[in-house]
Amino acid sequence: LGQLLRNHFEQAGHTCIGIDRPIPVCQGGPGVDGAAIAAAGAALKREGDIACDLSEGLPEGALDGVDVVIHMAGQGNPDADFQDVNKNNIVGSQKVFDAAASSARCRRVIFGQSK
After folding, report:
1. What one-character-per-residue DSSP string does 46-60 give?
2. For 18-48, how does the pLDDT look when each residue is reduced to its tens digit (9 = 90+)?
3. Which has the closest alpha carbon to 58: 106, 99, 24?
């Protein structure tokens, strides 16, 4: 979903920075090959994109010059254990919110998650 939104906003003339895990992961869904989507996402990385583990926080200055954060990441696998959901959905999201709140320019966070 994040990649689709990115494509839409870039086509509308906005500059986007992708932030993803060092090795992208996608759990897929009915009829959707998650591994293929993750591989495609890795292949679509652009200069300026950031690879990090959100549960450890964003790198210093990651949101410099950013007006809006669209956060669509998280562990959506219905079979994931609570530790993985907590790390990726709760702790990781809180780190994104904290970084946005500390940013001099960011005024809005748009958040969506499957869990």
Report:
1. -TT-EE--GGG-PPT
2. 888 777 776 666 777 777 766 766 656 778 8
3. 99
